[in-house]
Design brief:
This protein is mainly alpha-helical. It folds into 2 domains: 1-176, Arc Repressor Mutant, subunit A (Orthogonal Bundle); 177-258, Serine Threonine Protein Phosphatase 5, Tetratricopeptide repeat. It has helices spanning 23-34, 42-50, 58-77, 79-85, 103-119, 123-134, 149-175, 179-192, 197-209, 213-231, 237-258, and strands at residues 2-4, 10-13, 16-17, 40-41, 86-89, 92-95. The longest helix has 27 residues, at 149-175. The chain is elongated and about 75 Å long.
Length: 276
């Protein structure tokens, strides 16, 4: 049985979808999966289901949702296995599942591997592990689940981890010198994350390193105008220094070009040299 959180909530068994349909049951399943192999208290489940407006029957109603969750899993794996997956454990419940069966656990494993590779200067392996981790994302996490207070907190955390993975992959690819190859991805990233100055900085670097200096300078002006318009801020010191470095390099190149010696009149090249 496989559980997928990084996109619409899905439960797969033998390549068949067996995801619960009831909204409250899906919320319970999502929370148990995000805390897989850890006890989730009844109080936490009740907070997710009703917030501060829980009914007097909250405990028994939550127990009913657990029953329906087990019954949904029973249809796929049988009653005994379903009881093993969702166990009662004071002061609540625990969903027992192998890490490789939950996409968020796979994601965390791959990102940890990417970090180890990057620390060892093996940027090719780091880039591949980060790419494999990002491939697990099928869209907005828990799409289709009516998330309450608790799940919304997890969603914020997941988004931060997603951005960290994106930064890890970009950093590794840039260390490999894949500037041209990363330009399209970086343009997409600054569109999706317009206020992330790090992504803008990497786009500027990639364009500059790819020999597209005018586009790099234009990219800086774009982010500068965006930050002024949206936040009333100037670009960070890092972006400003990056911009200055590109301008300085451009100035040096122009100066060097102006100082090139003018060939003597009548001397065009080797073929025009006098023949003795």
């Amino acid at each position: 049985m496989e559980f997928r959180l990084l996109g619409p909530l899905e439960v797969m068994h033998d390549r068949q979808l067996c995801t619960p349909h009831a909204p409250k049951v899906k919320k319970v399943l999502a929370l148990l999966l995000l805390r897989a192999n850890q006890v989730v208290s009844l109080d936490t489940l009740i907070e997710e289901l009703w917030g501060d407006q829980s009914p007097q029957t909250a405990i028994t109603t939550t127990q009913t949702y657990i029953y329906h969750l087990r019954r949904s899993l029973t249809r796929a794996v049988g009653p005994d296995k379903a009881e093993e997956i969702v166990r009662t454990a004071a002061p609540g419940y625990v969903l027992s599942v192998a890490d490789h069966a939950v996409d968020i656990k796979q994601f965390d494993t791959l990102i940890a591997r990417a970090k180890v590779s990057a620390a060892a200067q093996d940027f090719r392996a780091a880039a591949q592990s980060a790419k494999d981790a990002l491939a697990l994302w099928r869209g907005t996490p828990l799409a289709g689940v009516d998330c309450g207070n608790v799940l919304r907190g997890y969603l914020v955390n997941l988004e931060e981890r997603h951005i960290e993975a994106l930064e890890l992959r970009v950093s590794a690819e840039m260390r490999l010198g894949n500037y041209r190859e990363m330009i399209a991805d970086l343009r997409s990233l600054v569109t999706v994350h317009p206020l992330n100055e790090w992504f803008h900085g990497q786009l500027i670097v990639a364009l500059d390193k790819a020999g597209r200096r005018s586009e790099a300078l234009h990219a800086y002006q774009n982010v500068r105008e965006l930050l002024r318009r949206e936040l009333g801020l100037e670009p960070s010191a890092e972006l400003w220094h990056l911009h200055q470095e590109i301008l300085a390099a451009d100035s040096r190149a122009r100066s060097s070009h102006r100082r090139l010696p003018v060939p003597p009149r009548g001397v065009v090249g080797r073929a025009s040299a006098p023949v003795h």
